[in-house]
Amino acid sequence: MLPFVVTATDTASRARLGVLTTAHGTVQTPAFMPVGTRATVTGLDPLEVAGMGAQMILANTYHLLLRPGPEAFRRVGGIQAFMGWPGPVLTDSGGYQIFSLANRRTLTEEGARFRSYVDQRMHMLSPERSIEVQTAIGSDVMMVLDECIDSTADAAQVRAAMERTHRWALRSLAARTEPDRALFAIVQGGVNPALRRESADFLTQHAFDGFAIGGLAVGDTRSEREEITALSAELLPAGRPRYLMGVGTPPDLLQAMLAGVDMFDCVLPTHLAWQGTAFTGTGRVKVTRSSYAEADEPLDAECQCLVCRRFTRAYLRHLFQCSEPLGPRLLSMHNMHHYLALMAEARRQIAAGTYAAYARAKLEAIDRHEHGARRIGVAADDAL
Amino acid sequence: MLPFVVTATDTASRARLGVLTTAHGTVQTPAFMPVGTRATVTGLDPLEVAGMGAQMILANTYHLLLRPGPEAFRRVGGIQAFMGWPGPVLTDSGGYQIFSLANRRTLTEEGARFRSYVDQRMHMLSPERSIEVQTAIGSDVMMVLDECIDSTADAAQVRAAMERTHRWALRSLAARTEPDRALFAIVQGGVNPALRRESADFLTQHAFDGFAIGGLAVGDTRSEREEITALSAELLPAGRPRYLMGVGTPPDLLQAMLAGVDMFDCVLPTHLAWQGTAFTGTGRVKVTRSSYAEADEPLDAECQCLVCRRFTRAYLRHLFQCSEPLGPRLLSMHNMHHYLALMAEARRQIAAGTYAAYARAKLEAIDRHEHGARRIGVAADDAL
Fold this sequence. Notes:
2 copies of one chain form a homodimer.
Chain A: E1 4-9, E2 16-22, E3 25-29, E4 31-33, H1 46-51, E5 57-60, H2 61-66, H3 70-76, H4 79-83, E6 89-92, H5 95-100, E7 103-107, E8 112-115, E9 122-125, H6 127-137, E10 141-143, H7 155-175, E11 182-187, H8 193-203, E12 210-213, H9 222-235, E13 242-244, H10 250-258, E14 263-265, H11 268-274, E15 277-280, E16 283-286, H12 313-321, H13 326-351, H14 355-371
Parallel strand pairs in A: 4-14, 5-6, 6-10, 10-11, 11-12, 12-13, 13-14
Antiparallel strand pairs in A: 1-2, 2-3, 7-8, 8-9, 15-16
């Protein structure tokens, strides 16, 4: 079983501090994992990512299966050697990509058959094949293959996908050949509390190393996300890590940590950087705005990142105006630092027992900046 | 007059070692200046560029005049502050861009009138306006506005452009308001030795801080470039820096240093990186080739750069196959390191008096790799 120890708990919330131990190093939780879908965190050098405080990154089985293929990882001894990342890696199973990306997909009880976007060949991604590929990639924490559906699907569809996810989870567990590689199950059930409860009850009866909350940030509102996250986290065993998949914004993270979530991943830091949007202590800034043409101040005066200490908004805007690749690179660095610094500060606050007050003040500051005077909880959805 | 001291000369060639002193630091010559056209060296952090050994960079008056405009530089005290580059900057005058890029251009004795590609407004770039903008940018070494034409133009056109370049050079000199900013004249005359001689004779009678060889790498062959470069360099005063503009490949640099050239700039290191081409000690490598899919060795086993010490050809190929921005970034780092390391090695060889033999061996190794068994000098043109 993956070593995981809870070392402190917040006084006024369910937030907790923990340590996860993998073959490639330890991870202080709560942790944000930068997304390295194709064995690269978009535009960033792995040493930069590590230098900003990332402890573990996420890679994706679906994309890596198609290119460069599992053999490329077997040949060099895993993704760490392949991409020059020195630490632990979690691999998503490919379930979400089969749902959202795959061409000519046919889904059966066996798995998903689909056409490669690289060479047009047909592939079968079954629970067993996903574990085989994740093992080849050299994953420290593997995910079970799950069936993802739109979170607004009808109750019968949501139940059917959840039940298949349960059967696939057990097949994934049975397919694991190397017990020292952790395997996480994924709680599904859409935005239906009763189904989420049923899913958590079922999966926690089996020997998974950790539990993820899946199927969120796919059409749900911020308040639905918060409710389902809090409910699911409460139903998961205290002694095992809880991972909220693909979520989300800084407010999402702050809220989910209040509920006791330990692990996160999200493409937003780099994704928004490429669109010219930076995160700051009080919310988002679109650097391409013409009002920043003469802004000789940094993105965030409080930020200690290498970008804020050296470049002005006016210069960053200039880079975006000229479509210069240094622009998204610098914004990606800043945004990634912002996320990782937020997590480091959250860990300090949990250790001091002051996280709940910190998180609420932080949520209010962001909400005030991004949504004017509206109260938290009724704020407009800040979905992508 | 810009302080420039020749500190050593090669024993068997005209190659020489020098030191250029500017308000923003000294430059050991021969020096390669990375091209930062729009106040950014494509995709690279200025600290990376400095860390690889760049001492001075080049920026472009034409592009910076249009965006962000001279006022952006005046406001923050120059391009060094604007882009976070700690060292000296040379600015090209815009002459070459007016020739090669400008829309709806009308060229008169006064200067060039053209339409901005940013906001469609008309601009007049005269010798005086170019000096004014270069001064605002905060240039340490300014260039005179020159009239560039295709090097294969007929003799009358080449002479007319050369004579206008001379008149514009004197107007540029008269327009300089701050004598501590260096100003270089540009020798023109196409591939006609007599005209090149006339141009050098004329310009060297005036108090320019240095002399550039312009109008090459615009349609000429490698042997024409070598002949004209060697001739022009010989005609220029030994006590002043010689700058070969926009040239070129590693063989071009090695040859020009043999002829006594002190300064270079070229977009090739980053330009070819974005196309997936890397420079190695024995020539170019196209990393996207399918034969590198399983190549677990670095781009260049002899190279000490951060890319070659950490990444394989197979990984770099994977990044390019996936259109991942880390690919061109890592290749740009490698290529820039390759150029800067070549210059550092050339300086060591000149100091030791062994440059001529070193350069010839190096030229042969590259030639053997890139053109099979053909002899140097009759090698096919490796033009872009």
